[in-house]
Write a structure and sequence with these properties.
With about 325 residues, this protein is an alpha/beta fold. Helix 4 packs parallel to helix 5, helix 8 crosses helix 12 and helix 9 crosses helix 10. The chain has a domain of about 220 residues: 3-Layer(aba) Sandwich (Rossmann fold), CATH 3.40.50. The mean pLDDT is about 90. Strand 1, helix 1 and strand 2 form a beta-alpha-beta unit. The strands form 4 sheets. It has a 7-stranded parallel sheet with strand order 3-2-1-4-5-7-11, with helices on both faces. It has a two-stranded parallel ribbon with strand order 6-13. A two-stranded parallel ribbon has the order 8-10. The chain contains 12 helices and 13 strands.
Length: about 325
Amino acid sequence: MTILVTGATGYIGRNLVRNLCAGPEPVRTLVRPGSDAAAMEAMGAEVSIGDLVDPASVDRAIRGCRQVFHLGAVIHGANATPSNLRRVNVEGSEQVGRSSLKAGVERLIYASSVSVYGRRLSNQAITERTPPRPDSPYSASKLKAERRLLALSASDGLPLVIARLSTVFGSGARDWAGLFRAIASGRFRMLGTGSGHYHPADVLDVVDGLLHCASITGIEGNTYLLAGQASLPFRQLVALIAESVGAPPPGPCTSGVLLRLYKHADWLSYRCSGHRLPKADRIDLFLNDRGYDIGKARAQLGFEPRRSARQMLQATAAWLRAEGLLDAES
């Protein structure tokens, strides 16, 4: 039977489709009109044109499928309005769940995000039991989608597994081009101490974890954290990026007091109005302090990240360089 991937044209989705197409089962992708369907066909995947907010097209895409990997979502950019986040990430995910029930799929694997824990949480041992505290419209939409799907699992027996994905690097990680380019050019300046932890994951390890979520029997209803081998301080992450692009590490850090005050103001703004302050995501880059305990995924899925932070950052830099995205004018 066929395996469906939504969000197939995204960064993780492309890598997942490529891996699945190397296997024995047919692969189908749900692709929005105007997206790069040719890339999916070139990999050997069937293309079903449709939209997560259109029940008929979701039903059509899932019909005859054994498994569904649901990665489709609005993440950032001009389309990440509150209404679109609700329609696509929440209502679209619920529709995928209902269509999966109708089609009798064996398992739905939902790709959620560690953003559900919120950015104010400072904890280097977050587990699946750590209470979520979303503090952005995107993270709130991912948690609402999880809960809608879990409700379908409880009420109608939807065979669901949730994977909360950490920050992803590796070949194809275009969203990180700005940071790598700034470090390569010597323009990057560290704000704050850089002592807060990041916990990156290589895209190929994330794909491997998603495949484990699909193949291990008897894990329906579970949530798993998928992250890399270990967390590391942001200043060490920056130093490894500098090494990967052949640049000297950035100079001394500056005080982070004003950053923390701005971060608190951003949190208050979101709590009171549902909106974040300008440049808040950039501030979060310097003040993030989270790590994830992947012990449950190790024990129940056999998930074992194979690529170190140095390896994934070198792969990212190599791809960005090959694409011309490390050039100062790119």
